[in-house]
Amino acid sequence: MPNSSTPNKIVIATRESALALWQANFIRDRLAELYPQMEFQISGMTTRGDQILDVTLSKIGGKGLFIKELEQALEDGRADIAVHSMKDVPMDMPAGFALAAITEREDPRDAFVSNKYARLDALPPGSVVGTSSLRRESQLRARFPHLQVQPLRGNVQTRLRKLDEGQFAAIILAAAGLKRLGLAERITALLSPDLSLPAVGQGALGIECRADRSDLIKLMEPLHHIPTARCVEAERAMSRALGGSCEVPLGGFAEIDGHVLRLRGFVASQDGIRMVSDELNGSPDDCASIGAQLAKNLKAKGAEEILVALESKAVDPVSHP
Ligand SMILES: NCc1[nH]cc(CCC(=O)O)c1CC(=O)O
């Protein structure tokens, strides 16, 4: 129960895309149920990541761009919490910030969306599939080398519009985003993790606040879903140990069955020609060490060479001729 040291009003910082607003409203509604006497306000803001739409995100600084402005608002006291897709949260939290809660995971799978074809394996050779995710691209190229992959940026609605305009035979999106936006009927087929291993954190939401706001961390506790948090921590520990960012074609997905946490991971070259994947089981209590160990095992199988090759590719050709 909130005591005298808890605020009577909580301001929630969010990006202004339909999905981000849905997520912020979802958390607001959960909090309002828990704390009916408190007041909640949603504060929408445009981030640099939202403004820059013409280049591949990985080339201009990556996912951090979507959350820096929100963190600035937390820092300045203009907002109390920020709601993020865990997929968009960098592996290392910046100093002074904490994840107060990780919510129960929505469907973590990728979705195949097409107006013409029922399944990925029904696409004729040369078909153009839209995605700007290096993870999705590398897996598609590895498993369906006869398909073309072309960039597709923008929010969920923009991506669906580009599909509907006929620029692509199919696109790949996160099922969670489509379901949250009430667009589940657009899902043509769900891709099993064997076919498209999800992104680290996919489907889970994170609530961020300043690390010194123990009042907020306490208030968010009922929204923290421990099995999801353990799975996401296993995935993030793996990605962190591999130096994962959105510049790296990498996937990580953990699930708990009974007393066993199963973590699967892969690292690939963008063209999917080189791919190293592996999995590890263990106790959910050991989530972080399972992630670190799987990263080691992947490195032992050759992930390091793939990562080094990616790094040299990322070097700016102008300043490093
Ligand atoms: N890359 C953007 C992004 N960040 C989070 C989601 C929604 C799914 C989720 O919460 O994991 C999406 C859309 C997508 O990948 O299709």
Task: Give descriptors for this structure.
HemC, D-Maltodextrin-Binding Protein, domain 2, 321 residues, Porphobilinogen deaminase, hydroxymethylbilane synthase activity, disordered C terminus, globular, transferase, Porphobilinogen_deaminase_C_sf, Double Stranded RNA Binding Domain, 3 domains
Please explain how this structure is put together:
The protein is an alpha/beta fold. It folds into 3 domains: 9-103 and 204-224, D-Maltodextrin-Binding Protein, domain 2, CATH 3.40.190; 110-191, Periplasmic binding protein-like II (D-Maltodextrin-Binding Protein, domain 2); 236-310, Double Stranded RNA Binding Domain. It has helices spanning 18-34, 48-51, 64-76, 134-143, 156-164, 175-180, 214-220, 226-241, 287-314, and strands at 9-15, 39-45, 81-85, 97-102, 110-113, 128-130, 148-150, 170-174, 189-191, 205-210, 250-257, 260-268, 275-282. The longest helix is centred in the C-terminal third of the chain and has 28 residues, at 287-314. It is globular. It starts with 8 loop residues before the first strand and ends in a 7-residue tail after the last helix. The structure holds ligand PBG. Ligand PBG is lined by residues 85, 87-88, 156, 173-174, 176-177, 202-203. Residues 85, 87-88, 156, 173-174, 176-177, 202-203 line the site of the ligand NCc1[nH]cc(CCC(=O)O)c1CC(=O)O.
